Every structure is written in structure tokens, then in C-alpha cells.
């Protein structure tokens, strides 16, 4: 063994001493040795249960956010300009609502308190895509986007002056070949302007032929766009939509399977599953309420004069909350406006919400504080009632239906969706942080403008927009979701 004396004069030991001395000299010459600066993030979410259905991640992590993106996910403590202690809370990707008619500042403010970070009007859509996006320039509190809609396009071509939904010729008249050509041109124009999808409400345009419907599907396919469809006539209407997908090769998303399927919700969903097994690209969604809502003057109620007296009682006038009778129904139909129909059971809702195919979408619309509670409480209700109270959904599966599933449905055309619905480094920092023990909806059919409980923080593109359960005023970080093809 080498002695300490021998070590002290060995060339290796001497050279090591020399190196250390030289290093110390240069450190002192540079003004001393400071420890390496700790990386600082704009916002840090500290100690939350991070749940990412896209990757399956489920564990306590710290999330660092910088410049609107997720910059770090770590077990280690992170430094931030603001550090938010989210211990005991779930950190999830922000919820993506594929079917939200309330595209206004009022509606957005309630949606974000339900955990929604991206709200999309993909069923009815708009007839002028460029104008729709321009009207929202400057940002909103959530991300936003729209389809080019067959309904409004048909209304333009057929000069139907209905309010939002058709009430004249667009409902009752078959289109001529020239009118179909003009509709196809306008839909192609809307897709060229960046529409996220093509929207259809065939139930509201009963005079539209299969030829007209499939012509518009093909226009969407030519632009790489899917179709979001409100079917007509229950199972027969679903068969028509699936046949359209089969005949054209289009991707088809069936809206509100619980509403369209009704008492046949299970069979309705099994037909969609059979189409998927056939290789067709068909998906669907549901909202967690027994009542539906629409316009009273729409084609859905054209047979109202043939109803039995008892049938009127299930309908509720949104403006006043009153239940209707034959006289009041006729009076309000002549006036036009929103109506809620209490036409389904909890068992029907359960069949749709618990089925593995369904995504969650609200079909909401809130105006001047009036509307359906689904406009303000759909996501909290799924998490509170169907996950926590009834246990019919696993929490991770429920989050999948709200986040990655809708993102993947849209990302082929709207490439920005590849950065949403996920918690991974580099993705957009759209995040919803909620208390799994308290989250619940609070809105009702008579008081729809009550925000959800238990949604503690929401970030949109890295900006905190809900802080300790309260909306942050004056921030509008939401961006347009739009195809840039």
C-alpha cells in the first residue's frame, strides 16, 4: 500500500493540486464562484395529482409553465414567478367542448368556470366563417372555433329569415340542383376560410335530400374536414348518417347521442359501434342531462297541433321557466324562442354517459342568464355525479372523454389541437385544476346561470383565468382554433 508521504510527492497528486489551484485562481479572478441559477417558470403548479389520459400519467408532480406552454413536469420542486399549491387537487388537461352554441363573452365566462378551455360550435356553425372569427379578434377567455354550417348556408341560399335555426323555406323546400351547387360552393368557401368542420342539423332541414346531404359530405372530405351531424328520425336518421360515411368516405361525428337516441340510446350507440367495427370513422358525444333544448319554432315541433294535451306539459319556456299547455305553446311558437323539453329519463342518460364510445359535450347556449343548465354545469356534473357519486365512470376515463378524445377527433384538420388535450412538455398550457371531492354542477333548469363548484384553477395558454374558483377579470388569452390549410 502507498504511504501518505509517497502520495504527497506523486506526480499525479501534484498535478491534481496544481489543477485545483488554477481553477480556484480563475474563479477568484472572475469575481468568485456563484451557484448555478435555478430555472424559473412563469407559473408552477405544485404538488397536484397530474392526470393525463393521453399518456396514462397519474401521480403527484410539479408542472412548470413558460410562455404559454408546459415547460417541465417533474418530481422535483420548481421555482416560479407564481407558485400555486395544488396539493389534493387534480391537474387535468383543459376540457374541450365540441358542441357549444353559446359563443359569446357571457357564455365563455360560465364555461371556463366549468373547466372548459376550448369551446367549439361545430353542429349549427356559421354561414360566414371569416366574419365569425373577425368578430372575436383580440382573444376571448377560452379558445374558440366554428364549423361552416349546412343549416345557415341553406338558409342563405333559400332566403330563410329564421333566427339562428330555419323557420321557412330552408325547412320545407327541397333544393334545386343549382341551389345544391351554391350550397356546396359556400361550404367550400367556409372551409377555405379555416372552418374546423362541416356542421349539419338534418333534423332541422327535413326537406334536404340524401343527395344534398352527401354532396356536402364530399365537399368536406375534399378539404380534409369531418362532419358533425344532428341526425333526423332516430335510428333511421343514424342509419342515414352512417350510410353517408360509407358512401362518401367522410369522417362523421354524431352529436348528442343521448338526445337523438332517446329511449333507444343503447341501440343507437350499438349501431355506431357496428359502423366503427366495419372500419368507418364514426364517433359520438353525450351531455349529462335528461332534458333537451332547442327553438320552439323549429321543424322538430311541426306536428305540435296533433299532440295530446299531456304532451305539452313536458315543455318549459326558457324565458320564464313556466311549463306549457296547448295555448301557451302555440303562442310562444308564433313568437319564437328557446324551449326546454323534459323528454328523457335518468336511465337513458346513464346509458349514454357510461357507454365507452361517448365523448362529453354540453350542447349549451346561455343568453342574458337564461338557458339550459348544461351550458354551465356539464363537466362538473360528470365529475361530481357520474364519477364520484354513482361510480359509473372511472375518473381517468371521464377525463379522456373531455380532453384527448375530442382533441384527436379534430387534429387532422385543425393542427393546433395536437397541442391540446394533453399534459406533456411542449403542449399548450390549457389546464383545469379541480377538487375531486367537491366538484359538482350547481345550475338548474330555473337558475341556469349558477357556476360550477370545485373548479379551483383554470389556465388557458398559460394564463390563470380562474383563480381559487373565481373568474379573473380582464384577461383574454384564448386563441382561435382554425384550420390553416
Keywords:
8-stranded parallel β-sheet, 485 residues, 9-stranded mixed β-sheet, disordered N terminus, alpha/beta
Number of strands: 22
**Helix-strand category:** alpha/beta
Report low-confidence residues grouped into runs of 5 or more.
1-36
Q: How far apart lie the N and C ends? A: 75 Å
- Please report which band the strand proportion falls in: under 5%, 5-15%, 15-25%, 25-35%, 35-45% or over 45%: 15-25%
Give me the Rg, rounded.
27 Å
Mean pLDDT: 92
Task: Give the overall shape.
Answer: globular
Largest sheet: 9 strands, mixed
User: Helical content, roughly?
Assistant: 25-40%
Q: Can you count the helices? A: 16
Structure write-up:
Helix content is 33%, strand content 23%. With 485 residues, the protein is an alpha/beta fold. The strands form four sheets. Strands 1, 2, 3, 4, 5, 19, 20, 21 and 22 form a nine-stranded mixed beta sheet that branches. An eight-stranded parallel beta sheet has the order 6-7-8-9-10-11-12-16, with helices on both faces. β10 (227-230), α9 (234-248) and β11 form a beta-alpha-beta unit. α5 packs across α7 and α8 packs across α9 (234-248). It is globular. The chain starts with a helix and ends in a 14-residue tail after the last strand. The model is unreliable at 1-36 (pLDDT under 50).
Amino acid at each position: 500500500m502507498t504511504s501518505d508521504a509517497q502520495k504527497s510527492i506523486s506526480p499525479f497528486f501534484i498535478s491534481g493540486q496544481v489543477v485545483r489551484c488554477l481553477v480556484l485562481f480563475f474563479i477568484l479572478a472572475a469575481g468568485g464562484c456563484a451557484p448555478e441559477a435555478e430555472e424559473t417558470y412563469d407559473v408552477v403548479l405544485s404538488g397536484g395529482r397530474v392526470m393525463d389520459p393521453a399518456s396514462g400519467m397519474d401521480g403527484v408532480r410539479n408542472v412548470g409553465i413558460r410562455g404559454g406552454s408546459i415547460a417541465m413536469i417533474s418530481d422535483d420542486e420548481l421555482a416560479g414567478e407564481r407558485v400555486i399549491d395544488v396539493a389534493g387537487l387534480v391537474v387535468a388537461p383543459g376540457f374541450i367542448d365540441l358542441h357549444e352554441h353559446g359563443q359569446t363573452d357571457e357564455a365563455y365566462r360560465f364555461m371556463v368556470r366549468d373547466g372548459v378551455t376550448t369551446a367549439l360550435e361545430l353542429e349549427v356553425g356559421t354561414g360566414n366563417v371569416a366574419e365569425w372569427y373577425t368578430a372575436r379578434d383580440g382573444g376571448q377567455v377560452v379558445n374558440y372555433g366554428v364549423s361552416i354550417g349546412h343549416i345557415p348556408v341553406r338558409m342563405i341560399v333559400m332566403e330563410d329569415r329564421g333566427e339562428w335555426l330555419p323557420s321557412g323555406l330552408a325547412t320545407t323546400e327541397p333544393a334545386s340542383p343549382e341551389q345544391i351547387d351554391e350550397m356546396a360552393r359556400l361550404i367550400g368557401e367556409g372551409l377555405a376560410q379555416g372552418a374546423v368542420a362541416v356542421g349539419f342539423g338534418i333534423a332541422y332541414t327535413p326537406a334536404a335530400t340524401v343527395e344534398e346531404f352527401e354532396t356536402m359530405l364530399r365537399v368536406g372530405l375534399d378539404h380534409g374536414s369531418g362532419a358533425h351531424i344532428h341526425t333526423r328520425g332516430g335510428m333511421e336518421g343514424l342509419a342515414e348518417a352512417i350510410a353517408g360515411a360509407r358512401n362518401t368516405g367522410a369522417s362523421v361525428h354524431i352529436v348528442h347521442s343521448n338526445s337523438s337516441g332517446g329511449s333507444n340510446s343503447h341501440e343507437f350507440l350499438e349501431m355506431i359501434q357496428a359502423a366503427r367495427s366495419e372500419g368507418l370513422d364514426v364517433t359520438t358525444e353525450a351531455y349529462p342531462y335528461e332534458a333537451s333544448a332547442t327553438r320552439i319554432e323549429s321543424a322538430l315541433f311541426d306536428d305540435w297541433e296533433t299532440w295530446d294535451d299531456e304532451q305539452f306539459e313536458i315543455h318549459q319556456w326558457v324565458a320564464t321557466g313556466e311549463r306549457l299547455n296547448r295555448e301557451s305553446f302555440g303562442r310562444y311558437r308564433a313568437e319564437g324562442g328557446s324551449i326546454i323539453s323534459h323528454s328523457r329519463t335518468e336511465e337513458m342518460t346513464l346509458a349514454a354517459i357510461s357507454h365507452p364510445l361517448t365523448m362529453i359535450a354540453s350542447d349549451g347556449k346561455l343568453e342574458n342568464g337564461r338557458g339550459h343548465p348544461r351550458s354551465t354545469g356539464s363537466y362538473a356534473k360528470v365529475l361530481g355525479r357520474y364519477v364520484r357519486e354513482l361510480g359509473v365512470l372511472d375518473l381517468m376515463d371521464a377525463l379522456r372523454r373531455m380532453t384527448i378524445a375530442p382533441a384527436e377527433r379534430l387534429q387532422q384538420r385543425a393542427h393546433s389541437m395536437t397541442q391540446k388535450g394533453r399534459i406533456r412538455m411542449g403542449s399548450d398550457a390549457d389546464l383545469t385544476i379541480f377538487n375531486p371531492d367537491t366538484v359538482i354542477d350547481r345550475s338548474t333548469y330555473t337558475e341556469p346561470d349558477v357556476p360550477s363548484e370545485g373548479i379551483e384553477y383554470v389556465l388557458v395558454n398559460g394564463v390563470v383565468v380562474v383563480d381559487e374558483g373565481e373568474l379573473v377579470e380582464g384577461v383574454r388569452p384564448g386563441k382561435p382554433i382554425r384550420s390553416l390549410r
